[in-house]
Structures are given as structure tokens and as C-alpha cells.
Specification:
The structure holds 2 protein chains of 2 kinds. By secondary structure, chain A is an alpha+beta fold. Chain A has 3 helices and 5 strands. In chain B, the strands form 7 sheets. Chain B has a 5-stranded parallel beta sheet, covered by helices on one side. In chain B, strands 1-9-8-7 form a 4-stranded mixed beta sheet, with no helix packed on it. In chain B, strands 14-13-12-18 form a 4-stranded parallel beta sheet, covered by helices on one side. The longest helix of chain B has 19 residues. Chain B is 22% helix and 27% strand. The chains are: A alpha+beta, B alpha/beta.
């Protein structure tokens, strides 16, 4: 199973995905440029992604605390903004496409 | 600026997170006195800044503990060793003195000298997140400020505050009485702040004492660092300009390695390589423990940092007390350790 991640420079990466991992963990495991500094405990917004519109409806909707964190600390929020640590990868998401949002880059 | 007198001590610890705090304990057992520097205004690092209320389940013998409770317990545990804290300061220089000591300086002009320095800086310094607005750098420190150090600086200003958390709300309330005008901008009409602050802010907005816009700042207008207006984009009313001379964005904190990168140490992807016997860097007398270090097999866990602190302290002892023999003792049975802990 795979997902397609477009990084902050517009480069597309097709990466293997494991069921039961969060999408943030999958992206991090492939050494893409994602800061994800709180490690998935919903205390920052540095794993912010835009989910491809075709896939948005297949995800479970965000919980209030995810929405709160996005509104408080993420930049350039769009309708399809999500925190990738809150998207659990399942078989149904095979082929998921998303883009890393600005502000998620690791320090240079 | 005048440099204060140099403080001499045994060990300087950069970072007062859980690992920096426990290092005080391990050093203290070996009669090594420590000073700690931290950019935050309180101990705990990520534990208290990122997840004070969230449970941690992998601290040995504590089945569940929150970030704040862990910090409080560590503070209690190290009390006998009387650590001295330098909060709200960033360690920004490291140099060797003529006497062979290490001198650490901070951005608040504190100077500390010690035979050893322990970098326990985790993910780096917590610094304000900057909104990705084109050209914002041009206005920083003249019209755009990410923190309020002196309120008086903002008297009679026309201030635009953006953000929806406690910092944004607190400064809206505190600056409103002395400012010419305050405009609060947040992306939605819900605030993630103390309910009391939100109520007070709503009252001020209803009384027209502040202006509240549900919008996002998208551009800054002005020249030579002097802000003249901020362009906002709202879902309902499109783009419009708000006249202001000062902007205070509050979007939370993020960790950056910061000046540690310029300390002359080896770096590996923003981490500091160390050996796994002494957790010492490539520079003798400079140690790195906790999330900031790197070695084969490294796990970024608090418990790994505790282990690293214990081994680091052994080598630190050899630098600080070169003429003394290192005696390995257990706190359970050693009366001299118990004396240090104040339990005997």
C-alpha cells in the first residue's frame, strides 16, 4: 500500500504505507521534510497537510481538538487542512494523496 | 549593555527540561553544583510547554504521570542540591577562558563559568512561530514583535494583535488601557484561551473599546520598517486594510536549535553526536544529553536521557574533582549520599 506526498518544494514522493501507522509517522519514517515536533500528541501544528480533495470524504472528520490546534498554530489553513498525526492509515486509504503545508519544514 | 559579574560554578546545564533537571540530581550526588539556563520562564521544557496535562506512561515506576507532574516531582527530587535557574534566557555563546574553564553567555547578559557544560536542550529553544507573510522580516523589532517585554513601549500605539490563544487574549486585555487602539484578529470566532479572558475581550469588543475581526492577516504595508496597515482576508467580507503601526502575532512556539549551532560542536542533522560511555561531544568538557544528542541506537525517550545523565556525571566528576577518586555508591545504603539528600 502506498500514499503520495507532495513536499514543500512541489516534489512528489510515492511512499510505502503501513496499516495502523499515522500518516505523520509514515511521512517521517521516509525522511521527508516534516517537523512533527510534538511527536503526535496534538500539541503543535507542525505536521499540517492538505489532503487531496478526492480523498477528503474518505477520512474520518477531525475531532475538535485537532481543529482547535490547526486554528491556533497552523498557517495558511484551507478547507482540506488536517494534522497528519491524526489520520490513521488503513487499507481504505491506499493511494491517499496529500501535500505538506508551509510551516512544517524542519530547521535548515 | 553592561556585562554582569561572572558566576563561577561546577557545571552549567543548558535546558531545564526533565533531562536537565535529573542531571542536577546525578551531578549533585557527586558533589557537583549546577546552574541551569532555559529560554522558558519555568522548568519542564517540552513537558510543561507542549503537554503539561497529557499523560506519560513510560516513566519507570510511574504508571501514569502528566508532563507537569513529572516536572514537579523532579523539582522536588533535586531540591537538596539547590540548583540555580536562569529562566527566560537563551544561552547564546560558549568560549574557553584562559583558565581552561568554559564560559557560557546568555542573551540577557548572564555569564557563567564552569569546567563542564551540559547541553540538555531537547529540540532546541522555544521560539515564536512567525506567520509566513511576505516581507514580515522588514518590520520585525521595529513594528512587528513576537513578545511583549516592556508594555510601556506600546503606549499610544495602534496595535493589531493576531491569534486566538491565551497570549493573544492576555495582551489584548493588558494593552487596551494604554494603547491608542487595539484590533484583535483571529481566523474564527472561537478562542482557545481562558474563558474569563474571552468574556472580558467580548465585553471590550461590544463596548467598542477594541475591534475584533474574524480574518487572517495576509500582507503588511509600510516602509523602512514602519508599519502603516495590515491587509486582512475574511471569508465573509474579502480583503480589507486595517490601519496600525504595531503588530503582535501570537501563533504559539516552535523549537529551533538556535545559537547552539554556533558553539563549534560537531552536528549531525541538527543533533549533537556523542559517545555512549560519557555522552561527551567532540569537545572535551562539553556534554550533550537527552533529545538533542545522537548516537547509534538513540531513542528520544525521557528515560534514555536519565540514563545519559548518570553516565555523563561520572566523567564530569573527573573534570571537576581531578584529584578525587570516584566512589560508586547506592543511595539506599550510603550514609554520605543520604546526607547530601538531606534524609539522614
Amino acid at each position: 500500500m502506498r500514499i503520495t506526498v507532495t513536499d514543500q518544494n512541489g516534489t512528489e514522493h510515492k511512499i510505502d504505507a503501513l496499516e495502523g501507522w499515522s500518516v505523520m509517522e509514515i511521512i517521517r519514517d521516509h525522511d521527508l521534510n516534516i517537523k512533527a515536533e510534538c511527536g503526535g500528541c496534538l500539541s503543535c501544528a507542525t505536521c499540517h497537510v492538505y489532503v487531496d480533495k478526492d480523498w477528503l470524504g474518505k477520512l474520518h472528520p477531525p475531532r475538535d481538538d485537532e481543529t482547535d490546534m490547526l486554528e491556533a498554530e497552523a498557517f495558511a489553513i484551507e478547507e482540506n487542512s488536517r494534522l497528519s498525526c491524526q489520520i490513521l492509515f488503513t487499507e481504505e486509504l491506499n493511494g491517499l494523496k496529500l501535500t505538506l503545508a508551509p510551516g512544517t519544514e524542519k530547521d535548515a | 549593555m553592561t556585562k554582569q559579574d561572572v558566576i563561577k560554578t561546577d557545571a552549567v546545564i543548558i535546558g531545564a527540561g526533565p533531562v536537565g533537571l535529573f542531571a542536577v540530581f546525578e551531578l549533585g550526588l557527586l558533589d557537583i553544583k549546577a546552574h541551569l539556563i532555559d529560554i522558558l520562564d519555568r522548568p519542564g521544557g517540552q513537558c510543561t510547554e507542549l503537554y503539561p496535562e497529557k499523560p506519560i506512561y513510560d516513566i519507570p515506576a510511574l504508571p501514569v504521570v502528566t508532563g507537569q507532574e513529572l516536572t514537579d516531582r523532579l523539582m522536588e527530587q533535586i531540591t537538596p542540591f539547590k540548583p540555580e535557574f536562569h529562566f527566560s534566557q537563551m544561552a547564546d555563546s560558549l568560549a574557553k577562558t584562559e583558565d581552561g574553564l568554559w564560559r557560557v553567555g546568555t542573551d540577557d547578559d548572564t555569564l557563567l563559568e564552569a569546567p563542564v557544560v551540559i547541553i540538555a536542550a531537547g529540540g532546541g529553544s522555544f521560539t515564536p512561530k512567525k506567520p509566513p507573510i511576505k516581507g514580515i522580516e522588514e518590520f520585525e523589532n521595529t513594528s512587528v514583535f513576537y513578545a511583549v517585554r516592556k508594555m510601556e513601549q506600546f503606549r499610544d500605539k495602534n496595535i493589531l494583535i493576531s491569534g486566538g490563544g491565551d497570549s493573544a487574549l492576555d495582551w489584548t486585555l493588558n494593552l487596551q488601557p494604554i494603547a491608542q487602539s487595539v484590533t484583535l484578529v483571529h481566523r474564527r470566532d472561537e478562542f482557545r484561551a481562558a474563558p474569563d479572558s474571552v468574556n472580558k475581550m467580548r465585553t471590550l469588543a461590544n463596548d467598542n473599546k477594541i475591534t475584533l475581526h474574524i480574518a487572517e492577516p495576509v500582507a503588511l504595508n509600510g516602509a523602512n520598517g514602519q508599519l502603516e496597515s495590515v491587509r486582512l482576508r475574511s471569508k465573509t467580507s474579502g480583503e480589507f486594510d486595517v490601519v496600525c503601526d504595531t503588530m503582535l502575532p501570537f501563533y504559539g512556539l516552535t523549537m529551533k536549535l538556535g545559537p547552539v549551532a554556533n558553539f563549534g560542536l560537531n552536528l549531525h542533522e541538527n543533533l549533537i553526536p556523542v559517545d555512549t560511555e560519557k555522552f561527551e561531544t567532540n569537545t572535551p568538557g562539553i556534554f550533550a544529553i537527552g533529545d538533542i544528542n545522537h548516537y547509534p541506537g538513540k531513542l528520544k525517550l525521557i528515560l534514555s536521557g536519565f540514563h545519559e545523565a548518570a553516565l555523563m556525571a561520572q566523567q564530569a566528576f573527573r573534570y571537576i574533582h581531578p584529584d578525587k577518586k570516584l566512589r560508586f555508591q547506592y543511595t539506599t545504603s550510603s550514609s554520605s549520599l543520604q546526607e547530601k539528600l538531606g534524609v539522614k
